[in-house]
Amino acid sequence: MFRKKLVLNEITSGSKQAQLNVILQKAEASETPDHQISEKLKQAIAALHLISGTEDLPALTQFIKDFQHHFEGRMMPLLTAIDPEAGIGYQMPEGEKNNLLLETLNIQPKLIADHSMNWSALHALLLDVWLKNKSRVPIINLTMADLEKINHPEPSKPLTGTSVLFRLVDDQILIESAGGINTPALLGRFTVIDHRIKLAAQEMARYLEEQNPDVIFAELLHLTDPHIDNVNRRAHIYSYELPLTSPSTLPQSHQIEISDLYVTIANNRVVLFSKKHQKIVIPRLTSAYNHNLNKLPIFRFLADLPYQYSRYNLSLDLKQYFPGLSFYPRVQIEETIISLATWILNTEQIASLQAPDDQVKLSAFYQIRDDIKLSPYFTLSEGDQELVFDPSIEKDILIFCRCIAHKKEVMLKEHLYQKTIRQFNAFLMPAEKLTLPVPIVPSDEKLKGKRMFIPGSDWLYLKIYSPKLGANRLLLRLRPLLKKRYGKYRITQWFYIRYQDPAPHIRLRLMIAPEAISEVLLAFKAKMEDSIDQHVIREYQINIYTRELERYAAAGIEVTEQFFSISSELVMQFLFQNKKEGVVSNHLFALYTLRAIISVFTENLEDQISFALSSYQQFLPEFSGDTIKVGLDKKYRELASDIKYAFKLNDPALLSGSSAVGFAFVNSLTAIRQKLDGNVFEIMQYLRSIIHMHLNRIFVDDSRKQEMACYYLLYKKLVSDKGRNKFQQPRDR
Fold it and tell me: Which of 717, 704, 713, 719 is nearest to 620 (CA)?
């Protein structure tokens, strides 16, 4: 040890700071875990994947919410989106500088504690196995058979690259940590000192790249400070690099320029896209550096982004399942330990260990040790630092007492002592390619038309907040205003959608000459004034209408708005007719018009079946429940006779009571079909978007659930038609 210190002083000229930047390499251990250990690890990781909680990064969740609110489905340049003035920024928004009143004050909002807890099947299993163990220090020993009995929700995120730190303790495996999103991340800093480590890290990266040829994995290059950058220093690992504040030495063709990156939201996930390469980009930070400590928002954003695609924390913390206890037993999955026994010392116990006399301290410790049945060795942890104590050594006990002075609560964990630490790293590669949301990336030529209309321009945008139950009555009350003349002008187009942000409201867009806007607003004021006074209408706003040019680029925004207008008129006519006569239910009208829309774009029954089924399946990740399909099958049997009756009507009015509006509805769809331009995926997404908006106008509540149900019920009806057609075909004699 003394010789190593002399060498260290020599190569660093005695600098303590420089010594922190030295990496010591020792010859590798001769022991290599065998195949059985590998299989047990895989089994334990599979179990942890089932029982570990899923979580989203709060900063990314907020970014998605803000992006949708401000940009409404658009694809924006990354630099614009992250800009706190031109866009929405990311985390820690920039505040007012030189604020003399607040600059030295630490005033934080008061947090409201949430003491609610959802009891799950896993809670019950853990408690049951715990209580059945009658040993002096109980152990929760789970089996894969136990876990298979639980109805687990399908894990929402896959494992995209897991690092496992484990020890072999006698005939058991102790998993000390498991998780991550980038398999070679922990190897990064060591790739500069060992060629074999570098090759191993590069092999892991190539595996992922070859598994996902449609994705670019780009290494983030960013300078922080000399000390931290020693941890960040690494060899070229991935084929592409994304320079931020540090240059890349890869060929220019394998460098992703920050100005080439665009960001959008698809399936409630942030998608980063390279226009030059026409591929999704997933940043990689192959380093153990905690990027959340960095002050550059764009770096934190890019480093956070991959976490939304992967399960990154594989652990079981009993304190989260049973908070407030003073003891938590060890948890094992067969022969693999996934959580060590834990003891919580309270303020009173800690105070008893702070007596001025050492013998009194020792006596108090021995009493606590016996009372709580403390393990022969235990650890005290703070962050990533851990101290091991031997309670049989008085000096250890006294040091422990000094370490916990002034603390209100202390957490101790059992330590499985070994003379020789048999510690290893394992790296698990993903078994399947990533399933990523596919963004709609229209060409610039398709994004025709003006995007934004402020109040006083050709489009007037109103938000009318009212309870959901009165929304249809409100629409019918406003209906006459949409048909009347305002001076020499009329409302040439109008459409509405139902929305909830933050409260339920109707979003109404009116196309009218700017000269008539004042008269329109006066008419709306006169019509709604009583409802506002009676609190039927809670709020009334005028807003900027921002067209979703990207979402409707396949046919163009103008022809889409024409369909929205006719769709709104058709639904309004149905509501008016149904109020008088109560002809059919909302869901039958929705199914009937859904079939009418699809039939305009394809008359082929097989294509209609395929579209209805795939559209239904797109909703499944959004909703939980093992019996969705069973419930929908039962619902179809209940409604089958009504659906068959309605579909036999061949009503040109589409059940709305007005043939003229029904014909206009079909004609507007025909106009869209003639304008459609794009690949099959873009066209299908466009068709689902306009159907979504149409069904939204029909359903007052739970429109997403009802839309999913409509697709499935239509699928069942079409399959029934196919079977009947096949049965009715003449047979060869």
Answer: 704
